[in-house]
Automatic annotation (TrEMBL):
Coiled coil: none annotated. Residues 24-134 form the DUF2382 domain. This is YsnF/AvaK domain-containing protein. Pfam families: DUF2382. It comes from the Bacteria. It comes from Deinococcus sonorensis. Signal peptide: none annotated.
Amino acid sequence: MTDSHDPTQPVSVQSDTRELVGRLELRAERATLDKVRAEAGTVVVRRELRQRQEVLTVELMSEVLVIETKSGGPDVYLDGVLLPAGEPRELLLYTEMAEVTKVPHVVEEVKVYKEWRAVQRSVPVQLGYETLVVDEQLLPGAVDPTTP
C-alpha cells in the first residue's frame, strides 16, 4: 500500500466529523521577582578628641636692674640693708612668661559618601507546569480498536 499523500500539502479535515466537548487550560507557573530592602548594618561616624604630649621651647627675656657700688663711694641701702662695695645686686623689673593658648584648626577634611552599587545576582527557582495526560480506559465489553 502506497501513501499517495504529499506531505507538503495541507490535510483537509471535514468539520462535520468533530464536535467540541470541552476545553482545558494548561497552566504554567511564572516567576516574579520582588526586591526587598533589608538593613545589612549600621555605621556610626563620630569625632573623638585624642591627647598627645608636646614640648614647646621658647626663649623668655627678663629685665633686671643691676646695682653695684665701688669702694670709697657713698653708702647704698637696698630695702634698708647696706649694699657692700663691689658686690652687684639685681632687681627684677619685668619678666616674660609663656602662656599657651590652644586654637583648633582644620588639619584634614574627611568626606563621607553614601553610594549605590548594582550587583547582578542569579536566583534559581523551580517552576511547575501542567501537561495534558490522556489515560485510555476501556469499558467492560468494549472492543479495543487497536486490536486486529
